[in-house]
């Protein structure tokens, strides 16, 4: 596992205790040309752009997807 994956999964483990879903951004903002995902947080450009306007439930749904993506080989 690379360090970005490890950081994301560590943050995700703390999510149930968080009053609000935190941003998954770790300030590694590079888009992978093959996957279309940020190499730091595993979000798509659309998810990054929409994050600030999302309701907390929607952010938590994105987090669940990010965990799934981070766990893929």
Distance between the termini: 9 Å
Subunit arrangement of the protein: single chain
State the major sheet. none
Nearest-angstrom radius of gyration?
11 Å
Percent helix among the residues? 40-55%
How many domains?
1
Mean pLDDT over the residues: 93
| Low-pLDDT windows of residues | none
Which class do the helix and strand fractions yield? mainly alpha
Beta strand count = 0
Question: In sequence order, what are the helices and strands, one letter per element?
Answer: HHH
Based on Cα principal axes, name the global outline. Answer: globular
How many H/I helices? 3
| Residues in β-strands, percent | under 5%
Topology diagram in text:
Elements (H helix, E strand, L loop, with lengths): L2 H12 L30 H6 L5 H16 L2
Give short descriptive properties of this protein.
3 helices; 47% helix; mainly alpha; single chain; globular; 73 residues
Structure description:
The protein has helices at residues 3-14, 45-50, 56-71. The protein is mainly α. It has one domain.
Summarize the structure.
47% of the residues lie in helices and 0% in strands. The chain is mostly helical. It has one domain (3-71).
